[in-house]
Amino acid sequence: MKLIFERSTPGHCSDYLPKSDVEKAPRPEKFLRKAKWMLPEVAEVEAARHYKELADQTFGVVSGFYPLGSCTMKYNPRLNERVASFPGFTNIHPLQPKDTVKGCQAVIDLADEMLCAVTGMDKITIQPAAGAHGEFLGLLLMKAYFDHHGQTQRTKMLVPDAAHGTNPASAVMVGFDVVNIPSNANGCVDVEALKNALGDDTAGLMLTNPNTLGLFDPQILEITSLVHEAGGLCYYDGANLNAIMGQVRPGDMGFDVIHLNLHKTFSTPHGGGGPGSGAVGCKDILKPYLPSSFLGKDERPEHSVGQVRSFYGNFGVVVRALTYMLTLGAEGMREASQTAVLNANYLMHLLKDVFPVAYDHICMHEFVLTLADIKKETGISALDVAKGLLDFGMHPPTMYFPLIVPEALMLEPTETESRQSLIDAAEKYKLVKEKICSAPDELRNAPLTTYIGRPDEVKAARNPILRYEE
Amino acid sequence: MAGYIPSTSDERQLMLEELGMKDYKDLYVDVPASVLLDELPGVAKGISEMEAETAMRAMAEMNVLYPTVLRGAGIYDHYIPSIVDTVAGKEEFVTAYTPYQAEISQGVLQSIFEYQTMICELTGMDASNASVYDGASAAAEGSMMCLKRNRNVVYVADNANPETIETIKTYAYGRDVKVEMLSSKKGVIDVNVLEDALCDEAACLFVQQPNFYGLIEDIEAIADKVHNKGAKLIVGCYPTALGMLESPGALGADIATGDGQPLGIPMGYGGPTVGFMATKKAMVRQLPGRIVGQTTDSRGGRAFVLTLQAREQHIRREKASSNICSNQALCALRAGVYMAVMGKKGLSEAAELSYDKAHYLAKRLCEIPGIKMVYDGPYFNEFMTTLPVDAAQIEKALHKVGILSGLPVDGGMLWCVTEKATKEALDLTVQTVRGAVSK
Amino acid sequence: MSRKYCKTHEWVQKEGNLYVVGITDYAQEELGDIVFMNLPNVGDEVIADEPFADVESVKAVSDILSPYTGRIAEVNEDLLDRPELINEDPYKAWIVKLEDVSDSAELMGEAEYLAFIEQEG
User: C41 vs chain A: nearest CA distance in angstroms?
Assistant: First the structure.
C-alpha cells in the first residue's frame, strides 16, 4: 500500500474553511513558522480511497473470531457508537457552567452507581484513561493513604509472577518496591510465600482474580484477609472482570481499590489500541484521596492525590459503557459473564486433545495452552502455530503470556461467539496441528495468504525507521 | 433486554451438558459460596435498544449546546471535516485491538506510522510515539523521560495550563520527584533570570506554547538558557498554533507534547482526546508507549510493526519507565486524517483565521469601558481581559444569546476564538458584553 | 589471567590494570538477536553482582551484572550502533572495562562454567 505521503501531489487539497470575514491582524514576525515542513497534499477522494485501503488491511472484531486472551474482544454494540455521537455529548466543552452540563453529570453519576453495584465499591472515578492509568491512580490512592496515616514505611507492593506487566510497572511509577509472589502448582497464589512476604513494610497486594491463567483463586478470602491483617491494602486488577461480572463482587472478595477496563468488560471498542477507560473504584477509606479536575472546579476531596490527566476522563467511552449496562441490566450482565465462562470451557474442552492445556481445571473466561513439549519435539513454536492460524482467517490468541507458562497461547473467546463458531475455530486449530507433522515448513513460513509475510522485527528494532522521509 | 449473545439458552444448556455439567453454578465451583451471588442487586432490569437510545438521548438533551464557543483553556472548538468522522467510523478501525499481529494489521500500523510522521513534521521532531492519553499526561510522561540519577528536579512554568501542572505534580508525587514552579513575569517566562532560577539538579523545564494566557513564549531563547544548565526543554504545544508559529523542534526543544484534540476530535466534555509526544533522535529510547517502525517482510516487501518493544511494560515490567499500554489510537487516527486532508494549507488557514478573529474580538472588547488586555505581549487565539463587572454576569448574558463566554479566571476572563466564530457572532458578543457592563 | 565466568553468564578477563567484561556465547544464544544495549557511562561506580547495563532482544530484556565492584573505565560504544557484534563474537565484543576493582562475584573457570551451563540447560 502507498503511504499517504506517496499519494501526495502538489496543490491537491480541499477547501474546508471559509475566507476570513474580519481584518487581518499584524503578525508576530519573530515567532512565525519558517523552517521547512511537509504534510500530504491530497484531494478528499484520494484520502477516502487511501483510508479505505488501510481499513481493508485491518482485522477487527467485525472481521472474525478474535480470541485474544486478556483483552476481552467481545462484540461492540453499534448502539454505543450512535449514542456517543449525539451532539449533546460530543459538542460539550468540559469547562461549561455546571448547570449547562447536567446530562454529562447524569451519565457520570449513573455509571458510578451501576459500576459500584457491579464491583461492590463505594465510589468510582472515571478520570483514568486506560487500565494501566487506573492502576497508577489506584496505587497512588494507597500511597496517599499510608502517607496520611504516617505509615511511610509501607513501601513493598506484592505482585504475583503471573500478573499483567502493567502491575509491576505501575507499582514502580508510584514509588513502591515490587516483591514477586510465586504461583503454586495449581497456578494460584502460593499462600505460604505470601505469608513470608507480608510484614510492616507491606503496602499491599495487586491481584487479578480470575488470574492470567484463567483460574479463579479459591483461596481469595484467605489471601485478602492475610494482607489486611498485615496492615496492607488489596488492589484488584479488573482486566478479567468479564468472567465474574454480576457473579461475585471484588468488594466482597476483600478488595479495597480496583480498576475496570470499560473497553474490555463493558463492550466499548478498542479502536486499534484505544481510547479505553480505566475507571477506578474504591472503598470509603480511600475516598478522601480521589482525583478531581482543577479547572473543572469539582469539589476536591480533602487529601486528593491531584489528577492523573486533564478534566474528567474519557467521558465518551463512559457514555458507551453506560449504554451497554442499561441494555444488559442485572440479568444481562450475569448472562454475559456466564456465557463467557461457558464458551471458554467449551473451547478448552474442544482443544485440550489438540494442544496441552497448561492447567487442566475448570477455567473462567480464558485458558492457556502450552506448546513447550511440541516445541521440544518438533521445533514448531507457539509463534509458528499462531502464524499458521492467520492462514485460516482467524486472529491468533495472545502469545507468550503469562510469562510463567512456556510457549503459551492464551484464548479468550468471550460470550459473543456461538457454539458453532467455537466448533469451527477448534477445527482450524486441528488443521494447524496436523501441519506440524505434515507440513512443518509451511508453518515456519506462515502466514502465506496474508497481505504481508512475517515482518523482520530484528531489523525494525536495530535500525529504527519511525517516520517517512522524502 | 437487548443482549448480544449469539446463542439461545437451549444451545447453552446443550454445551453445559457436553461438558458434563448441570447448570452454570458448576462453572463457578472455585468461587467461595459465601461471596457467590444469585442475583446482582442495585442494577435495574435490562431494556431494549430502542429504550436505551431514548434514555441516553434524554441525558444528552439535558446539556446545553452553544452555537458559539469562546472558551478554550485546553479544549478547542475547531471545525472537523466530515471525512474525519467517516474514516474513524470504519468498523475495522473501531473494533481492532492494538496491532500485535502485524500480518493482519498493516492498515492500522500504517495509519499510526503516518500519524507519527505528521506529528514529527508539525513539531519539528525526529520521532513520535503512537499516542498517549492526553496533553496533560503527555507533559507528565515527557517530564519523567528527562529524569536522571543526578537530575531529579522538574521545573514547570507557572503559566502553563493548571490541569497540566496538576498532572505533572501527581506523576512526580508517585516517583518522589521534586517539582519546582518557575514564576512568569507579565504573563511570560522571564528569559533574563531563567538560568539563575534553575538548580544544578534540574532535569527539565516544561513550558506551554502558547501559554495558558494565550501568550507566545520565546522558545528559542528559553531553550538556550535551559541547555546552558544541562537540562532538557519540553514544550507543550497547541497544534493549531503550529500552523502559524515556528515548531518547537526548530527552536531547540528536546521534547514536544500536546493535546491533539484540535486536530479533528470533538470537545466531548474533555475526552477522549489524544496526547502526542515527539522527541529528537537522542531521546527516542526514553519515549514511552507504542511506536510503529518500518521494516521488510519475509517476501521482501515493506512492512510496519510495533517496535522498540523492550522499552515497554510487558517486557521490562518493574524496570519500565512507564506503564502505558492502551493509548488513544482511534483519536490519533482522527488527527492523522485531519492533518492529511487539511494539509499545510488548511492547518495554516485554521491558525490564521483563529488568530485574526481573536485579535478582532480583543480589539472590539477593549473598546468597552473597563475592559482591557491584562498582558500586552503577542498572543495567538486566546487572551485575557479585565472585566468591570462580575464574570458570572458576562457569562450569563452571553449564555442567553447562545454564546459560551470566555473562562472566568482570577483577574478577568480568558477568551478563545477559533475559525468557527463568525464576525456576526463576535459582534453579538461585543454588543452583549457592552450591554451587561453598562447595566 | 584467563577468562573467568559468572553464574549470570558474564565473562571477565584481566588486561593490564583493567578488567574486560562481556557476556558469554551461551548468553547471546539464549537471548537471540540482540537489538540494543543500554550502556553505563565512564566513571560510573559498579557493584559486584548488581546490574550495570542491559541488553535487549526483540522480545526480552536482560540485566548484565558486574563481576566486580569497581569503576567503569571504558565503554564499547561500537555496540550502540552495532549490537549484533555480540551475536557474532561475544568474546571479542567486550562491553565495558573496569578499573579499581575490589570485591568480586563468584567466578568460575572455563571447565567449571561449561559444566554449569550443561547442568542448567
Answer: 21
B209 and B118 Cβ atoms separated by less than 8 Å = no
Name the A residues in 379-398 with CB < 8 Å from any B CB.
Answer: 386-387, 390, 395-396, 398
Of A340, A372, A341, nearest in space to A355 by CA: A372
Sorted by sequence, the CB contacts under 8 Å of residue A464 that are 6+ apart come out as B127, B284, B291, B293, B307, B308
Name the residue ranges covered by the structural domains of chain A: 4-52, 79-324, 332-458
Q: Identify the bridge partners of residue B303 per DSSP, sorted by sequence position.
A: B295
* CA–CA dist A82, A103 (Å, integer): 16
C72 to chain A, closest Cα gap in Å: 25
pLDDT score recorded for residue C103: 86
pLDDT band at C2 (very low <50, low <70, confident <90, very high): confident
Radius of gyration of chain A (CA): 25
Domains of chain B: 68-78+346-438 (3.90.1150.10), 82-338 (3.40.640.10)
Looking at beta carbons, which residues of chain C come within 8 Å of B310? 35-36, 56-61
Type of residue found at A235: Y
Using DSSP's 3-state secondary structure scheme, residue B264 falls into coil
C35 touches chain B (CB under 8 A): yes
Taking contacts as CB-CB distances below 8 angstroms, the residues of chain A near C35 are: 458, 461-462
Which chain A residue is nearest to residue C35, measuring alpha carbons?
Answer: A462
Is the pLDDT at B435 greater than 70, yes or no? yes
The three three-digit cell numbers of residue B305, written as one number: 510493526
**What ipTM is given for this predicted complex?**
0.97
pLDDT tens-digit map of A4-37? 999 999 999 999 999 999 999 999 999 999 999 9
Is B315 touching C (CB cutoff 8 A)? yes
CB contact under 8 A, B309 and C58: yes
Chain A: residue whose CA lies nearest to C82: A462
Q: Which domains does chain C have, with CATH numbers?
A: 4-113 (2.40.50.100)
**Exposed (0-12), middle (13-18) or buried (19+): which is A287, by Cβ within 10 Å?**
middle
Give the chains touching C; criterion: ≥3 Cβ pairs < 8 Å.
A, B
Q: Which positions of chain A have pLDDT values less than 70?
A: none
Q: Which class is domain A79-324?
A: alpha beta
Instruction: Report pLDDT for A200.
Output: 97
- Closest approach of chain A CAs to the CA of C95, in angstroms? 17
Q: How confident is the model at residue C60 (pLDDT cuts 50, 70, 90)?
A: confident
Q: What are phi and psi of A211, to 5 degrees?
A: -80, -175
A332-458 placed in CATH 3.90.1150.10: yes
Q: How confident is the model at residue B2 (pLDDT cuts 50, 70, 90)?
A: low
